[in-house]
Amino acid sequence: MASLGATLALCDINYDNLEATRKLCSSSSPTTPYIDDVDVSAKAEVVKFVDTTVQKLGALHHVFNCAGVNPTSIPLEETTDEYWDKLVDTNLKGVFHVTRAAIPHLAPGASFVNVSSISGIRPSALQAVYCTTKYGLIGFSKCMALELGPRGIRTNVVAPGYIDTPSNAGIVKGGEAVERMRNGNALGRLGTPEEVADVVAFLFSEEARYVNGSVVEIDGGIKMSSTTSK
Fold first, then answer.
1. Which residue numbers are catalytic?
2. Which of 207, 155, 163, 165 is nearest to 182 (CA)?
3. CATH of range 38-218; options 3.40.50.720, 3.10.20.30, 2.40.30.40, 3.60.10.10
4. Spatial contact of 64 and 6, defined as CB atoms under 8 Å apart
5. Which UniProt keywords apply (predicted)?
6. Pairwise CA distance, residues 26 & 12, whole Å
């Protein structure tokens, strides 16, 4: 988005990674993003960030909800309340916090893009909590599209498959697991963050002005089978 000329406000719970992202964005844009370390599960932090963003930038046009906790494969009977709360508070409640805080600042033509997952479309054994948050996010987003659409505010969802990111590398162990992920789609490779970003940029653009309530799968044509990371 920075390379397309957008003025950005970025938040993350990991400030070091956030600072690295700011430097990357600044290298391809004449403007420097406003950044702040925010835990999206904390309502007060989100409200402060959104209000400060509007004060600094003057307006808010598009919102990208991408904060999330990746899954750990756990049998249901071994799943703790703490694990449930951790994923739900970030993956689902966090989107609610950001959305609620942003809506009063949005005008017709604005839009949201929320990040779900193929796990919000296809269930996986041992990942019930994660799938719950991602299925729930799609339902929440479709409700947003219906409620905000009459106000000229669009909401869409991207559902990435296996993407080559540091966070995914942390949950995939061993060459065989990576190979299984590559072979799990028709293109025979992992996706890249840039390929997800391109779709997000389109959904924010004027070219997508009639796209509302859609779920765009970015998965290379993943096979219809239930798999788990091991």
1. 130
2. 163
3. 3.40.50.720
4. no
5. NADP, Oxidoreductase
6. 17
